[in-house]
C-alpha cells in the first residue's frame, strides 16, 4: 500500500507512526531526519492566543509535491513525508512535519533542511495570529527568502 507523500489536514499527527510507515520494510534506509513545527506563544513581541492557517486545496498539495520532486533530484533520498495542518491551532500544537529517509544521514539532513526552507517561503499557506492587539496576518520574512536562496532558488515569497 502506498502512502501519500503530502497530507494537508486539520487533525494532529503522530511523528513515530509517520516515520515507521515511511521506512516500513525498506532495508535500504539507514537514516531518518525529521522536523516538527509547533505553534509558539509569542511572535514579533506579541503574545499569540491562537493561529489560523488557510490554504487552497489542490494547489497546496501540488506545490509541495513539486518541492519533494526537486528534493529527489538534488539529494540521494529514498522517501519523504510532509504533513501540514490547517484550521485553528493553539500554542504547543503541532503545525507540520517533514520526514526524510535515506541510506546515509547527510542526505536526509540536507533534504529535510532544503524542504523546510522551500516550504517556509513557497508553500501557499496563509497564517493569521490572534494577539491581544487583535488579529494579524503573518508576513513573509526576508530571512526565509535568504535561507531558500542558499539553495540557488530566488523566487519571491508565495
Report on the architecture of this protein.
A 4-stranded mixed sheet has the order 1-6-8-2, with helices on both faces. Strands 7-5-9-10 form a 4-stranded antiparallel sheet, with no helix packed on it. A two-stranded antiparallel ribbon has the order 3-4. The chain has 158 residues and is an alpha+beta fold. The protein has helices at 15-23, 59-74, 105-122, 142-149; strands at 6-9, 31-38, 42-43, 46-47, 50-55, 77-85, 87-89, 94-102, 125-131, 134-137. Helix 2 (59-74) packs antiparallel against helix 3. The mean pLDDT is 91. The radius of gyration is 16 Å and the shape is globular.
Going across the major beta sheet, what is the strand order? Answer: 1-6-8-2
- The coarse silhouette is globular
Main sheet specs: 4 strands, mixed
Mean pLDDT: 91
What is the percentage of strand-forming residues? 25-35%
The count of strands amounts to 10
Question: Which structural class do the helices and strands define?
Answer: alpha+beta
Number of helical segments? 4
- Indicate the percent of residues in helices: 25-40%
Distance between the termini: 33 Å
* SSE succession: EHEEEEHEEEHEEH
Question: Unreliable stretches, pLDDT < 50, 5 or more residues?
Answer: none
**What's the Cα radius of gyration?**
16 Å
Amino acid at each position: 500500500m502506498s502512502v501519500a507523500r503530502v497530507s494537508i489536514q486539520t487533525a494532529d499527527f503522530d511523528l513515530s507512526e509517520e516515520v515507521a510507515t515511511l521506512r516500513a520494510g525498506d532495508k535500504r534506509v539507514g537514516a531518518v531526519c525529521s522536523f516538527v513545527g509547533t505553534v509558539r506563544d509569542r511572535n514579533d513581541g506579541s503574545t499569540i492566543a491562537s493561529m489560523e492557517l488557510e490554504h487552497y486545496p489542490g494547489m497546496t498539495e501540488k506545490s509541495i509535491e513539486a518541492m519533494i520532486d526537486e528534493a529527489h533530484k538534488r539529494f540521494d533520498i529514498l522517501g519523504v513525508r510532509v504533513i501540514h495542518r490547517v484550521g485553528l491551532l493553539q500554542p504547543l500544537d503541532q503545525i507540520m512535519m517533514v520526514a526524510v529517509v535515506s541510506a546515509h544521514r547527510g542526505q536526509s539532513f540536507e533534504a529535510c533542511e532544503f524542504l523546510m526552507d522551500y516550504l517556509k517561503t513557497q508553500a501557499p499557506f496563509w497564517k493569521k495570529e490572534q494577539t491581544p492587539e487583535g488579529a494579524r496576518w503573518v508576513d513573509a520574512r526576508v530571512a526565509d527568502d535568504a535561507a531558500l536562496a542558499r539553495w540557488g532558488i530566488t523566487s519571491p515569497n508565495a
